[in-house]
Amino acid sequence: GENVEQHPSTLSVQEGDSAVIKCTYSDSASNYFPWYKQELGKRPQLIIDIRSNVGEKKDQRIAVTLNKTAKHFSLHITETQPEDSAVYFCAATGYSSASKIIFGSGTRLSIRP
Amino acid sequence: KAGVTQTPRYLIKTRGQQVTLSCSPISGHRSVSWYQQTPGQGLQFLFEYFSETQRNKGNFPGRFSGRQFSNSRSEMNVSTLELGDSALYLCASSLSGGPSYNEQFFGPGTRLTVL
Fold first, then answer.
1. In 10 A of CB B27, how many CB atoms?
2. In this complex, do A101 and B97 lie within 8 Å of one another by their Cβ atoms?
3. Residue of A nearest to B42 (CA)
4. Given an 8 Å threshold on Cβ–Cβ distance, is A101 in contact with B33?
5. C-beta of residue B47 within 8 angstroms of C-beta of residue B34
6. pLDDT tens for each residue of B22-51
């Protein structure tokens, strides 16, 4: 069945350094890839998304890249700050209103001062 | 605009019982999705409702069911509770289409503990 693998499960980086989280999906029909951030005790919130007709998208310190051929997509956070500490989830879904959304298992990102 | 609300926030039940969780979407949102979140399994999609119809369903047993009312509020029911059903249940609403059409806004969740 459809699957999204997310790595690493935990990531610790020095404040100011970059963090990269990678996801691989199995369903070739997937063409929408959102990323959610969930701070401790809070609800998930969409931080960035990318559609299959785009290879890269940036929003300030956050960027997402997509390689449809390899079925890989990645989240890049530059100049990390303490408030970036959270669990990040990638997801994949089709472009139909009836498509299922499959989430990765999450990455716990910790920013060391 | 008020966010997505869920009631109750916490619930303790025993094995074999049933439970009903409620989700009120953002005003104007017609799509409501439900997710189960556990430490080991992450976020798992349960089902999505749109205009009172179940539009999509995840891989959960028939003990998990839901419905949506004409005002877009949704309920989720779990019958014959098992220990493994202990989890945070999140609902998310979006304007109209599925997850790929509009941003999903999550509620705070209902923490269910099965003893």
1. 10
2. no
3. A105
4. yes
5. yes
6. 999 999 999 999 999 998 778 999 999 999
**How many Cβ pairs within 8 Å bridge chains A and B?**
63
pLDDT surpasses 90 at B98: no
Cis peptide before B8 (omega within 30 of 0): yes
Would you call B84 helix, strand, or coil by DSSP? helix
Tokens (6 digits) for A14 = 């020095």
Q: pLDDT value at position B95?
A: 85
For residue B34, the chain A residue with the least C-alpha distance is A101
Q: CB–CB of A99 and B98 under 8 A? A: yes
- Looking at residue B28, the DSSP 8-state letter turns out to be T
The shortest CB-CB distance from A93 to any of B99, B108, B109 is to: B99
User: Which residues in chain B have their CB less than 8 angstroms from residue A94's CB?
Assistant: 100
> A99, B109: Cβ pair inside 8 Å?
no
Q: CA-to-CA distance for B47 and B35, rounded, in angstroms? A: 7
Beta strands in chain B (DSSP E): 5-7, 10-13, 19-24, 31-38, 42-50, 53-57, 64-68, 74-78, 87-94, 105-106, 110-114
Asked if A31's CB is within 8 angstroms of B106's CB, the reply is no
Residue for token digits 């408030």?
Answer: A83
* pLDDT score at B5: 97
**Which spans in A52-104 are helix H?**
none
Q: Let me know if A108 is exposed, middle or buried by CB neighbors in 10 A (0-12, 13-18, 19+).
A: middle
